[in-house]
What we know:
The protein is α/β, with parallel strands linked by helices. Helices cover 41% and strands 16% of the residues. The chain contains 12 helices and 12 strands. It has helices at residues 22-29, 33-40, 50-62, 68-74, 91-106, 120-132, 149-155, 177-190, 206-221, 238-249, 263-275, 309-322; strands at 80-85, 110-115, 137-140, 160-163, 172-175, 196-201, 231-233, 257-260, 285-290, 303-306, 330-333, 336-338. It has a 6-stranded parallel sheet, sandwiched between helices. The protein is elongated and about 85 Å long. The relative contact order is 0.11.
Amino acid sequence: MDSNAFSPHGANRKLGSKPVTLQDVATAAGVSISTVSRVLDERLPPSRSKAAERVRQVAQELGYRRDIMASSLRRGGTGTLGVLVPRLSDMVMALLYEAIVRAAEKQGYFTIVATCGDDPAQEKQAVESLLDRRVDGLILATSRLGDKLPAELRQQQIPHALALRTDGISPSAIGDDEQGGYLATRHLIDLGHRDIGLIAGPNFTSGARDRRLGFQRAMREAGLTIRDEWIRESGFGIESGETEGLALLTPAHRPSAIFAINDDLAIGVMAAAHRVGLTIGQDLSLVGYNDIPLVARLPVPLSSVHIPLDHVASLALEQLLSSPGGEAAIRRVMPSLIPRGSSAPFKR
């Protein structure tokens, strides 16, 4: 195997030859190095001049390839972004990270992911590790309400953006979670349900807080009673959904419908319903949130609120690259409700 196969400087190298440089292309094309650099810079709009066409033709004939690392070093960066998520076992976070990778590649950036398990101490340690690797910026999907980290990043003017969660100040790209919670609850109300429970997730994230606010707005707008015992705070995982689902479904007087603030919680509710002998879509209506690919393929397909993660990722990257000072607008992506078999008209 060629010893340069995994070298950053091996990308421009042909077997048995030296790397093709900008000077080589400039000499062969009869233009200056600066002209070659501008023509071959993928971040700039492509020139259609005869000289530019000549440069591209010569570069292709010589086998020139842009040295991304050298280019990054010239502009004072590494061309690398750090992405921090709570855990990659959470499908939403895994899908978000993949969406960020796709968006970053289009801008010429490589991404590194780290996880912190929703632990503030691990979050700070992971950020420090990413910064030690000289990333050019950070995208964080880990922000907790009251978290000091975004403020520290702003104070130190470290380029960053928050995704799916926000502290209300740092540049952020999120779903409109209050509207999403409203859509989920309004859907159940429109189906005739009046006794509606909420599995609310943890109280430390903006997403859980806002989806709960949307639930409350829909219930109050419809003049329905919000029963405190039918609002269950929880973790984010399937196990939490099953535990809190059992707490809602075991008593004789139970809700006829449940809104779970993410799809994993809703899947846990499905398991709880099965354990107590209830059929989803008949005895109990259920709506989740995020619309991960799995939920449309369940034995009873899950109604869910869809958030376009590719759009969130693109906005987060845009916020990061356009707001290096650390403060910018909070950009919200509109959700949409996807009704499926898990939610049905109330049967008296």
